[in-house]
Amino acid sequence: MMKVLVFSKDRAMQVQATLQSFLAHCADTENIRINVLYTCSNEQHSRQYLQLAQEWQSHPQVRFIEQNRFRRDVFNILNPYSSTSFQNSIYAFLAHVHPRIVRVCRCLVSPPRTPSLIMFLVDDAIFTHEFRLSEIIECLAMRRDALGFSLRLGENTTYSYMSDREQQLPVFEPVDSNVQKYMWTKADQDFGYPLEVSSSIYRLVDVIPILLEIKFDNPNLLEGGMNKRRNRFASTRPFLLCYNRSVAFCNPVNLVQTVSLQNRAGTKRHYSPTELANLFDAGNRINFEAYHHTTPVSCHQEMELVFKKRDNTS
């Protein structure tokens, strides 16, 4: 029912905390596959991802995939079709041609007839509160007017870190005792940014057609391309679901990408990717338990990293 795609670059230390906090706070992970799509800028980072892959071998739902050709890698992971189906052949063709051809041949882009969902994650995400995937799946199945389910938004996220200002909470409508929905089409700042890759869940039938039309070779361009097409869903899926209180946040203590340098991030030298890689080699790991039941005021919030010495289990 659900695939998880984690984007990671030069952050073995941080993605370890993402995986550990996700599995610690998600109550039902038995039937999902977590794909960590990673890339490295040097041998040290490459060696550390290989070490992580080995450490996580005892968790069959987690696999590490080294990036080859980013766009193709993403489509291979998202592929909802069986390998022997005719639809898979069409999908493979469209996933490997230029997006301009896809736009010309739009009639060939038939949405996959599957209830499958995709959860996008990034490697500085940390989960803080308990949640159930079965609840999210049920909510999206019952609320066809909802574009997705955000794990990073809630009544507590009153500040936009990227814009560095307070943001207005939308008008929430209760879905059940723990989940609510709001109109992203009329929302402020982070609440009005419905398609993102840090910690949200979407239907593959919505995501795949727009991704086929986008030229991207990194997560920033993927997210930007999706969000530029958000108005396609303004009339059919004008709502976004979230918990009353967010269950995840991104801790942007450093910057590893060079595509969107205007994106705000921490600048402390001891949290640079190189310094964290050196700490990783020295046997240190982020203590994800230190953030248990932390309630941030923003979906991006700089918090001091808490370390502990590595144990023998993931």
Provide a short characterization of the protein structure.
The chain is built from nine helices and 15 strands.
Question: Your description of this structure?
Answer:
This protein is an alpha/beta fold. The protein has one domain (2-150, 197-235, 250-309): Spore Coat Polysaccharide Biosynthesis Protein SpsA, Chain A. 29% of the residues lie in helices and 20% in strands. The chain has 9 helices and 15 strands. The protein has helices at 12-25, 43-55, 70-78, 86-95, 99-104, 133-142, 204-212, 219-228, 273-281; strands spanning 2-9, 33-39, 62-66, 117-122, 125-127, 146-150, 159-160, 165-166, 173-174, 179-183, 199-203, 239-243, 248-250, 284-286, 307-309. It has a 9-stranded mixed beta sheet, sandwiched between helices. Strands 5-13 form a two-stranded antiparallel sheet. A two-stranded antiparallel ribbon has the order 7-8. Strand 9 and strand 10 (179-183) form a beta hairpin. The longest helix has 14 residues, at 12-25. The mean pLDDT is 91.
List the main descriptive attributes of the protein structure presented here:
single chain, 314 residues, alpha/beta, Spore Coat Polysaccharide Biosynthesis Protein SpsA, Chain A, 9-stranded mixed β-sheet, 9 helices
